[in-house]
Specification:
mainly beta; Immunoglobulin-like; five-stranded mixed β-sheet; 15% helix; disordered N terminus; carboxypeptidase activity; carboxypeptidase; hydrolase; transmembrane helix; Carboxypeptidase regulatory-like domain-containing protein
């Protein structure tokens, strides 16, 4: 029995030792600290004081930039997996000022108590850009001793600037504002002028130019205009005397004194005259080109274009009263008769007179009436900006003595001028003395009476 007990005791001891060994071999389980989140809402203010959800704003833990998230469509965000502690969040969005906000996690999730508002910022104006134009001017004939200049035209927004090239032919314009349409003109004595358009809207530009020697001038021919310069008529241009092989081109133009230019589409040898050309002088220009020569031109100036003469229009008013209203309505004041080239004082109805008026309107003919009662004087042409009006004795003799008004109206433009004039009495103007005839008549009556008395006495005798 004692042996069995020893064996049992030995087994029990071994079992206890094995159990303790198992306990010692099993490791302890690690405790994971709890994590929490920070949530909030972000709006943007575009300057109208009304908050709008900030979609896509970035929210970052300043102390751990790896911890970052973005706001959703309604401006909400959640930054998760955060331990207890103090946090500084940075909220940013393009076009808005960045905002930071502080909060603390202490054993639970945190929701920011207030909506974070981002304010729109106005981007600073970019620094102005300035560009340059540089280049080199050379001569085709190899001449290196020529004085070339480069002009930057003022119609591009810059002051009109002309600079010389240096001894190596180089030039440079610096500090130029952006411009897509700069024009440079290169010139030198004895060489053909070259014009280049340059774009410096976004970058510097380099322009290199080779000037060609001047060509000999082509011998010009002569030009001529034939036809009647009246609306509806056709003028014909002709030219002769050009060297063989010359190619000719044509252009009709007009000259209005202070203005003029080409007539659109008139590039043939004939021109039909239209009413918009009335009063204009017509020009026919022929340009000749020939290989190896500089182009030349010949021109011919025709007469001024006249409108077709019309029958005189009706009198502008029926009497002097109506005429006064008519002139006032057109802002016309009658000028003196001397300003129209007539003599001062009463006009003799037994004589002819010539009145002259300057006429700036585009008329070929004017109608002329005399008032008090309208009397047609006639229709007169406008020649070189003036109207010559004949006041014949036949017309003047039909007028009563006193004040009258000469009214001139343009047939095409309707322009009006008026001249105040006076007409003498017909008998007074001829120098006829009414006292003499009356005395003679009285004497004749007395003689007749005396003869009658003598005759009666003879009968009674």
């Amino acid at each position: 029995m004692s042996g069995l007990r020893r064996i049992a005791a030995l087994g029990l001891g071994l079992a206890m030792i094995g159990g303790l060994s198992l306990v010692a071999a099993t490791p302890a389980t690690a405790v994971t600290p709890p994590t929490y989140s920070i949530s909030g809402t972000v709006n943007v203010d575009n300057g109208d004081g009304v908050g709008v959800a900030a979609d896509g704003a970035t929210v970052t833990d300043v102390n751990n930039p790896a911890e970052s998230t973005s706001t959703d469509a309604i401006g909400g965000f959640t930054l998760a997996g955060l331990a207890d502690g103090d946090y500084t969040l940075e909220i940013s969005l393009d076009g808005y000022a960045t905002v930071t906000t502080d909060t603390t996690i202490a054993g639970g999730d945190v929701t920011l108590p207030e909506v974070v508002t981002l304010t729109a910022v106005t981007p600073a104006d970019p620094e102005p850009s300035y560009y340059s134009i540089t280049g080199t001017v050379t001569a085709k004939d190899g001449n290196s001793d020529f004085a070339a200049t480069v002009e930057m035209n003022e119609n591009q927004g810059y002051s009109n600037t002309v600079i010389p090239v240096d001894s190596s032919g180089n030039f440079s314009f610096e500090n130029l504002e952006p411009n897509a349409d700069v024009t440079l003109t290169f010139s030198a004595d004895g060489y053909q002028t070259v014009t280049k358009d340059v774009d410096i809207s976004a970058a510097d530009a380099e322009v290199n130019v080779e000037l060609l020697p001047n060509l000999p001038e082509l011998k010009a021919g002569t030009a001529k205009i034939t036809g009647t310069a009246e609306v509806g008529q056709v003028l014909t241009g002709s030219t002769t005397g050009w060297p063989a092989g010359t190619k000719l081109s044509y252009q009709w133009g007009f000259n209005g004194g202070q203005f003029g230019g080409p007539i659109d589409g008139a590039t043939g040898t004939t021109l039909k005259l239209t009413k918009d050309l009335v009063g204009m002088q017509i020009v026919f220009i022929v340009t000749g080109t020939n290989d190896g020569f500089a182009p030349t031109s010949a021109s011919a100036f025709g007469p001024h274009v006249a409108a077709a003469k019309k029958d005189a229009a009706a009198a502008p008013a029926g009497d002097s009263g109506g005429l006064a209203v008519y002139l006032e309505g057109r802002g016309v004041t009658a000028q003196s008769q001397t300003s129209a080239g007539l003599p001062a004082g009463d006009l003799n109805p037994g004589e002819d007179y010539e009145a002259e008026l300057k006429w700036t309107a585009t008329d070929s003919y004017v109608d002329v009436y005399l008032y008090s009662t309208p009397t047609l004087v006639g229709t007169f042409p406008v020649v070189n900006g003036a109207v010559q009006i004949t006041l014949s004795a036949e017309v003047l003799s039909e007028l009563e003595a006193g004040n009258h008004t000469l009214v001139v109206t343009g047939q095409s433009s309707g322009a009006v001028q008026a001249v105040a004039l006076t007409v003498a009495d017909m008998l007074a103007a001829t120098g006829f003395n009414t006292g003499g005839p009356l005395a003679i008549a009285a004497l004749l009556l007395l003689l007749g009476a005396a003869l009658l008395v003598v005759r009666r006495r003879r009968v009674h005798a």
